[in-house]
Predict the 3D structure of the following.
Amino acid sequence: MNISGTGIGRGVAVGNILRMAPALEVPSDQLRPSTIEFESASSDVRRVLQEVSADLQKRADQAQRSKESSDAAPILAALSQMATDPALGQSIDGALQGGKSPERAVYEGFDEFEDKLRALGGYMAERANDLHDVGQRAIALLTNSPMPGIPQSDTPFILLADDLSPADTAALDMNKTLGIITIQGSPTSHTAILARSRGIVAIVGAEQAADLASGSRVIVNAASGTITVDPSDEELQQAELHKQHAAHARLLRGKPGSTKDGRHIALLANVAKPEDADTALEYGAEGIGLFRTEFMFMASSTAPSVEDQTKAYAKLLGRFPGKKVVIRMLDAGADKPLDFLTPENEPNPALGLRGLRTLRTHRQILDDQLEALARADAQTDADLWVMAPMVADEHEAEYFVTLGKARGLKQVGVMAEVPSIALMAQEVAQVSDFVSIGTNDLTQYTLAADRTLASVGSYQTAWHPAVLRAIKLIADAGNSHGMPVGVCGEAAADPDLALALVGLGVNSLSMTPLALDDVRANLAGHTMQEAQDLANRALSGEFYPQARH
Ligand code: PEP
Ligand code: MG
């Protein structure tokens, strides 16, 4: 039997299920015996919440000291504070005054707070589950019940849980955890974030896994998002092969990207904030191929100052002395709207003011960002390349390159995301220092299919021959003019597609750091001739139908 969910990463794990202890029963709504005074009930609750808070703080301190789980430390510390939040205490006291039992009052008090977080949606809604866990701990102490959480095991296991809280994950013994399956959870849930940052094989949102019993043997395949229950010998052999490939791929980490016959293809990382440099370096990135600078602008209702921007850019550049770092100018608009820049009333925002178009209408922001980049460049030794998003043709390319050069920036280029720039690639190659192809948008615009819309989601594959032909136009122009052409969209993270892109003539690939191992290994296993053969078959549309369905 196969169960599906959302796979995190690309790994495969084989092992036996270990279920997490079931959640506590919801405490009964009956009133407490009248002999128990409010004061004594309230002081019991406070003592228990103090205990839970202290325990969480202890775990936060432990997590902070451990390299593996330091990312859980701030969340645990925040939860420790929440446990003794005065507003929460008041809400619990309110229920106690109404005659509720201590455990019921705790349940209601937390429930109210969790609802508030859920109503905020997104990241905050995910934190509601974390808060729920804090309440459960308090209820377990009040009712002398076994603490919910990770069960103990002497042998390695695949953990099956409803969802995991930070407190659970901090307690996970990584030497025994082969993989994680959660019944709830989305790609942004805490489990998913943790799995990604530690490279744990995980599948989240696998609703049908709710019926799996402890001890069931399973294969967890994160790449395909499937859990195979009671696998056959053949399925086990395939999983073993997959694991061997992954282990082999890890061995190549630290080596530069290269085809089997020695053509160097720089393998770079996509990052969203300077701190991501750690992961990029850990996975052997040869530099940064796309730093999305939006994070700084999203944090407030005005543009960050030149000083703040300079600091952030210098922080990233400082981690890559002598190495290439491509920083992208602010890409506001469409799927990345900014209140203070993006018009509210555009009927088709993806076709409206975004990327360079937004920057041209807000020259101060454009100038400030270039100034900050020039200052950061002067302070550091990285090889800084700067590019603009959403550039339509050679005129816009020239406009941006001229501005960048006037600031003293050495490598100034453009992203290829709009089909028109591919059609004008020969002219663009005469004015731009480099082109980086954003296949996410290039696919969206070539196929006229909104990348954020699930109903047309199946169009979003760069295997479409029209997208590949557009890429070839750019690669050909680059190669005939000696202009570097890279790919920094999601397509570069797919090992097979990455090989086809190399066959089309691109000379660098930038991707989420976790994809680097597999792409590096696939390139190392094939010659340039094989890459070109694959590209030719792809250009004729051979792989598109399967990729789409
Ligand atoms: C792209 O469009 O492929 C790209 C890399 O940019 P973003 O995904 O940030 O729009
Ligand atoms: Mg884009």
Summary: The chain has three domains: 2-17+157-166+177-186+196-246, 38-143, 258-548. Residues 38-65 form the longest helix (28 residues).
